[in-house]
Amino acid sequence: MNFILEYFTSLNPMNFLSALPGNIAQGIIWGIMALGVFITFKLLNFADLTVDGSFATGGAVTAMMLIAGAPAWLAVTVAFAAGIIAGLVTGLLHTVLGIPDILAGILTQIALYSINLNIMGQANRPINANKFVLLLSLRDITMAIIVGLCFAGVLVCLMYWYFGTEQGSVIRATGSNPKMATAQGTNISFYKIVALALSNGVVALSGSLMAQYQGFSDINMGRGAIVIGLAAVIIGQVIGEAVFRKHFNFIVKLIFVLLGGIIYYVVIGIVLWLKMPSEDMKLFTAVIVAIFLAIPYLRGKSRNSFKRVAKLNKKEAVAQEVEKDA
C-alpha cells in the first residue's frame, strides 16, 4: 500500500504538461504520415508495408539535401518525390509481377534499408538547427506545431480535392470493389500504382519533417511506422464515428486521421509520464492499437447479436399484446 502511495505521489502533473507540446508536435507529424497510410489502408484496401522504409527515405534525402546546401523547402520536395518512386516500385512489383500486396511492400521496405544507407553513407546524419535553416525544429516547439499544422491543413485540402475528382473517385472505387471497377473498364493496376505512389510520397514528406524536427536522420527512424500510422487511422475512425455518426464524411475522416496521430502521441506521453518501462513501449503500442481495432468489431457484434434481436422481438410482442388488449 505504501508503495502504491509513493508511486502516485511521485507523479508530477507539471512534467506531463511540460512534455505535452512536444507530444502534440510529434503527433501532427505522425498524423501526416497516417494520411499517407489512410490512402492505401482505407481507400485502396491495400496492406502496404513500404512505409517503414519510405518514411526513413524522406529523412535520409532531406538530411543529404540540407548538407549539400539545398534549402529546406527543396529538400522536402525531393523527399516527397523519392517517396513517390518507392511507392511506384511497390505498385509495379504487385501489378506487373503479380507479387501479393504484403510481400511487395516488404520487398520494397527491405530494399529501401540498403538504399537509405547508401543515400546517407552511414547510419545517422545530424542536421543541427544551428547549422541549417530548417522548416521546424525541436528547439522551437510552438513554431513546429504551427508549421506542422500548416502542412497538415494544406495536405488535407489537397486530398479532399483530389479524391473528389474523377481519378480520385476511381481510386476509391478500385479499393471498394475492384471487380466492379474492372467490369466497368477501369485499369485498376494503373490506379493502384498511382495511389501507392501518392501514399508513400506523403509518408516520405512526413519523414522529412520528422528528420528536421528531431535534428537528425537515422536508418531506423521508420521502424514501426506502419503500426503508428494504423493506430492513428483506427483511433481517428473510432472517435470520429462516435462523435459524428452519420455525418462522418470524407473531409471529417481526413481531419480525424490527423487527430488520431495527435491522440496516439498524447497517450504515449501519458504512458511515459506514468513511468512505464521505455523498453516496453512497443508492447504498449500494440495494446493501444489492438484495443482501438477491437472497438468497431465489438460494437458491430453487439448491434447484430442474437440477444439484441431477441430483445427487439420481445418488445414487438409486448406492443402487439397491448394493441390486442386495447
In short:
The chain is mostly helical and 326 residues long.
Order of helices and strands: HHHHHEHHHHEHHHH
Class inferred from helices and paired strands: mainly alpha
Major beta-sheet overview: 2 strands, antiparallel
Q: List how many beta strands DSSP finds.
A: 2
Individual helix count? 13
Identify the overall geometry.
globular
Strand order of the largest sheet: 1-2
For the termini, the CA-CA separation is 63 Å
Report the oligomer.
single chain
Mean pLDDT comes to: 86
Describe the structure.
- The protein is an all-alpha fold.
- Helices cover about 80% and strands about 0% of the residues.
- The protein is built from 13 helices and two strands; from the N terminus they run αααααβααααβαααα.
- Strands 1-2 form a two-stranded antiparallel ribbon.
- The mean pLDDT is about 85.
